[in-house]
Amino acid sequence: MEEIVNRVARSPLVSIDLDEFMHKGENRIFDLKDVLFQGLILKEKDFREFIKTNDWARYENKNVGLICSSDAVVPIWAYMLLASTLKDYANTVVFGNENEIEKMRIDQAIEKCMESQEFENAKVVIKGCGAVENKEYAYTQLTNALLPKVTSLMYGEPCSTVPIFKKSK
Question: 0.85 exceeded by the pTM?
Answer without folding.
Answer: no
